TrEMBL record, chains A, B:
Protein name in the entry: Homoserine dehydrogenase
EC number: 1.1.1.3
Keywords (A to Z) from UniProt: Amino-acid biosynthesis, Methionine biosynthesis, NADP, Oxidoreductase, Sodium, Threonine biosynthesis
Domain ACT positions: 353-426
InterPro entries linked to this entry: ACT-like_dom_sf (IPR045865), ACT_dom (IPR002912), Asp/hSer_DH_NAD-bd (IPR005106), HDH (IPR016204), HDH_cat (IPR001342), HDH_CS (IPR019811), NAD(P)-bd_dom_sf (IPR036291)
Pfam families: ACT, Homoserine_dh, NAD_binding_3
Coiled-coil regions listed: none
Record carries keyword Protease: no
Cofactor: a metal cation
Species per Swiss-Prot/TrEMBL record: Streptomyces spororaveus
Function summary: Catalyzes the conversion of L-aspartate-beta-semialdehyde (L-Asa) to L-homoserine (L-Hse), the third step in the biosynthesis of threonine and methionine from aspartate.
């Protein structure tokens, strides 16, 4: 079964993940050979800065011309760990045109152009694997695409961004404010100098789009994902959450509508009960709940980022793609046959936790309660607290369409007894 | 890509799991067709009692002659959900001889004869998939075989038997004794009339053998797995565990030795800290920690048994095997190239929690401490408690080889100041 001609691998990008992939390919070469059935050889490494010293990588393999590397005619598999849209997109397309299968860790590109890339892979009869694009080392794409291929996934809810989880965990455990916790995350290397992609939820939204497409066998684009960042979550919100027996997490939530005819995809901060397994996901860890009709509730947990964990996912895909190559077969491609539409955020059914600053006089609660009722939103609990002629009112609603909830908040803002809406947060996981 | 000639499936066994498989194959036929690329047709159902009414199954498909069903010449895939060694083993072998790929949920058979079955599958160029054999619906075999194929797994620790977890969880939360908790589990259908396979750890040991083989790419037979049941765990043990900030779980633990040259596999009850994620696995749920060199610590959690969850795993395998069949390829077979030997339990390095009934007189602690020292076992903590001329001594050790620990206990029993060894339990997860 073993053949001796090696499969040749082009590594596109050699940053934190790429250098780890190259290192493991070298140190664990014998194991990879046994598990694949043929040796895999690092045949070229395309980089932007060729002068940078890369320990353990033969300088003769390094090139700045990724296109020429792909076109030289002997490459079997390309590993794309450049990230971002271009040049990654053009290079992956070039690879397929050259009959090269691709392993990618590129969530932004997959979320934006997954359909076109899958089509190019299929047209040329090649593989496109991307386990590393979502939740780092945690096996999630393969279990959802393959292990649950005979089941019906109804809901996915998870923490898919380590940076924001680290920040929120710090705020929860130390009482720190957002900025202080962000500064600590930056100092420790958990947040980038420009943390926008993480804290505004763009990174999580890209992963949500990819997971939603896989979960529901339909196409979900990045633009289809409702997105709210977590920069406005405050120490006061955490104090409110604690009073409710909750904590706050930035969640990606993908749901099939009750009638099964549409899906929703969203990323936003939310309160979840401390008893929920996602509440105890600490530091930069990721965890994803998957609810399927027959399987029930499954959870996958692990490191969601980092060089070595991401490399582990890349190499798992490399073994699979290399095995497929030897068998002259391909793995599962895009499955989007259900063509379920993605409904807007207003259709999502959820609960709200709303803090209002109100005038401390009789009749205010009645006025507020009437506003909720007029919008068809049922109140679960109200807590009223007076302080020097002002009062705060904390309302937790029952489940209602998000449109009705936001309509209620809009109307509350117009009441002259309501001085301000201090915070609004969804409540999930119950 | 879609073909219309259906792939024909023989269902061997139609109990709790089999009937659920048949139901989902019927109700979700269109989805399965889309995901596979061809329809799958239930072509025959082999049962022991043909007269039993099976809702939703065409009586014309039912037969008592499983061998004839496999040999009739048009079957592509067999699903074996009979369980036990025979006739399952002979039927699976017959299937391979007939060019039929097999999906099995049979942990006992895989643990005992996995190597021979894998060899038969490979000889005939067919697939043998068995995700459902370990931890029900939880994707575990595929993630370990495929997602982590580019990584090095060093440790697996998990709760892989739902019945015993239900019993231990009840004992923990209610203070009940073993028999009382077992009775409740039996009444609720979590334990079988004869609970031996579960409570004595045989079921968990079979799963441990399968997982160890996959994790370490070697052969681990059922006989290689050290096994202790949980029938002697008492309410007093839980009280001791609580004092240590621990609970008690029946764990399957698979480890690569520090020098990498051997592995160990064991199933026994153990104390684990309440802060460990496995401590909060409740009722009949399963959860498995996997520690890999690059990926770090991963956890997989979900329902470990039951008709629908197990059927979910079977159907995921059915989709994969059917796809392989259409591509005229096979999935990954047995990977046992490392040929790492399995070391005996005595080589395992762990910690002990030991409760001794001792005479309440001076010098006893010195005598006990000397015994530990003579066996090279270092003591972490000692708690001494006197009562009416008797005293109890609770010793928690540092990590030491299991052989040294059991040697110490043997020597302690011989001390005339030691009236008895009330309990011995390993401490894990720190």
């Amino acid at each position: 079964m073993m053949r001796t001609r090696p499969l040749k691998v082009a590594l596109l990008g050699c940053g934190v993940v790429g250098s780890e992939v190259a290192r493991i390919m070298t140190t664990h070469a014998d194991d990879l050979t046994q598990r694949i059935g043929a040796p895999v050889e690092l045949a070229g490494v395309a980089v932007r800065r060729p002068s940078k010293v890369r320990e353990g990588i033969d300088p003769a393999l390094v090139t700045t011309d990724a296109t020429a590397l792909l076109k030289r005619g002997d490459i079997d598999i390309a590993i794309e760990v450049i990230g971002g849209i271009e040049p990654a997109r053009t290079l992956i397309t070039t690879a397929f045109e050259q009959g090269i299968s691709v392993v990618s860790a590129n969530k932004a590109l997959l979320a934006q152009d997954g359909a076109a890339l899958h089509a190019a892979a299929e047209q040329h009869g090649r593989d496109l694997y991307y386990e590393a694009a979502v939740a780092g080392a945690i096996p999630l794409v393969r279990p959802m695409r393959e292990s649950l291929a005979g089941d019906k996934i109804n809901r996915v809810m998870g923490i898919v961004n380590g940076t924001t989880n680290f920040i929120l965990d710090k705020m929860d455990s130390t009482g720190a404010g957002y900025q202080e916790a962000l500064d600590e995350a930056t100092a420790l290397g958990y947040a980038e100098a420009d943390p926008t992609a993480d804290v505004e939820g763009y990174d999580a939204a890209a992963k949500a789009a990819i997971l939603a497409g896989i979960a529901f066998h339909t196409r979900v684009r990045l633009d289809d994902v409702y997105r709210e960042g977590m920069t406005e979550v405050s120490a006061a919100d955490f104090a409110s959450a604690k009073r409710m027996g909750c904590t706050i997490k930035l969640l990606a939530i993908l749901e099939r509508a009750a009638d099964g005819e549409s899906v929703t995809a969203r990323v936003h901060p939310a309160m979840i009960p401390l008893s929920h397994p996602l509440a105890s996901v600490r530091e930069a860890y990721n965890a994803v709940f998957v609810e399927a009709e027959a399987a029930g509730r499954l959870m996958f947990y692990g490191p969601g980022a980092g060089g070595a964990p991401t490399a582990s996912a890349v190499l798992g895909d490399l073994v699979a793609v290399a095995r497929n190559k030897l068998a002259e077969a391909t793995g599962p491609g895009e499955s989007a046959y259900t063509q379920l539409p993605v409904s807007p955020m207003g259709d999502v059914v959820t609960r709200y936790h709303i803090s209002l600053d109100v005038a401390d006089k009789p009749g205010v609660l009645a006025q507020v309660a009437t506003t909720f009722a007029e919008h068809g939103v049922s109140i679960d609990t109200v807590r009223q607290q007076g302080k020097d002629g002002e009062a705060s009112l904390v309302v937790v609603t029952h489940r209602a369409p998000d449109a009705a909830l936001s309509g209620t908040v809009e109307a509350l803002r117009k009441l002259d007894t309501v001085r301000g809406v201090a915070s609004i947060m969804r409540v999930e996981g119950e």
